[in-house]
Amino acid sequence: MVRRLSTARIRMRVAAFISGRGSNMVALIDACATPDFPAEMALVLSNVVDAPGLDLAAERGIATETLPHRPFAGDREAHERAIDAVLVRHKIDLICLAGYMRLLTPWFVERWRDRMINIHPSLLPAFKGLDTHARVLEVGARWHGCTVHFVRAAMDEGPIVAQAIVPVAADDTAQTLGARVLAQEHRLYPHALSLVASGTARVEGERVAVRDHPLPVPAINPPEST
Ligand code: GRF
Predict the structure, then answer these.
(1) Can 213 be counted among the known catalytic residues?
(2) pLDDT tens string for the chain (226 positions)?
(3) How far apart are CA 149 and CA 182, in angstroms?
């Protein structure tokens, strides 16, 4: 019998951090379940014990852990050291923040430097922070979108992996615009994770370089119908 060397590729073990509904987390779990995807969803971690996304993860057979921040009584780093121990226990290689509503300390961000990405519902560096859809409407911007970026200590900052854009309609409300952006988030995040986990996108000098790609930052444009 001829023994063949295994051609199975090593897949990155990903942890998704959530605090709420977890729709981006589900998009990542589904992507990880497709053949040849370069990452596996190894863990979903939440600081909110009753985050709806935890049930969605468990239904899909993904390990979950909850680490509420309150028992740490304001000691953010102690909370994150506990999180870090969980990540080590699950042999995590890469973190995807997916609606995790806690600012991370410089200690944690440095520890996971270039191994932690986030999705934000705007075309960064515009509209950092909360309520992005309402703020876009307020200033009358014609285009909006979402960004996946590597995480740095400053909020919603860090090298950009990929972006998706959507048009703003004259009769949009924050809800209709938010729904249009969210649909693109669900396409963009798996795409960006695949670029990072495969090593195609890497941080070089605080920008993301994408191997074998004509553009410095791949963009996902809205489908023809939007
Ligand atoms: C998304 O809009 C994401 O961009 C932001 O938080 C929201 C999380 O939504 N960071 P969900 O929990 O993934 O549905």
Answers:
(1) no
(2) 455 555 556 899 999 999 999 999 999 999 999 999 999 999 999 999 999 999 999 999 999 999 999 899 889 999 999 999 999 999 999 999 999 999 999 999 999 999 999 999 999 999 999 999 999 999 999 999 999 999 999 999 999 999 999 999 999 999 999 999 999 999 999 999 999 999 999 999 999 998 876 555 556 765 544 4
(3) 16
| Sign for the pseudo-dihedral over CA of 111, 116, 121, 127 | positive
Q: Quick one: tokens of 46? A: 């939440």
Instruction: Please identify, by atom number, the ligand 1 atom nearest to the C-alpha of residue 20.
Output: 12
Q: What is the pLDDT of residue 58?
A: 98
Contact yes or no for 194/41 (Cβ under 8 A): no
Closest CA to 109 of 57, 180, 75, 157: 157
How wide is the angle at C-alpha 201 spanned by C-alphas 23 and 220, nearest 5°? Answer: 50
User: Hey, what are 133's tokens?
Assistant: 């859809």
Residue (of 216, 221, 218, 225) closest to 184 by Cα position: 221
User: d(Cα 78, Cα 95) in Å, to the nearest integer?
Assistant: 19
Closest protein CA for atom 14 of ligand 1: 23
Q: What is the Cα–Cα distance from 120 to 118, expressed in whole angstroms?
A: 7
With CA atoms as reference, report the closest residue to 76 among 53, 103, 99. Answer: 103
- Of 120, 133, 149, 186, catalytic: 120
CA distances from 115 to 9, 43, 150, 201 (A): 19, 15, 8, 12
Cα 25 to middle of ligand 1, angstroms:
9
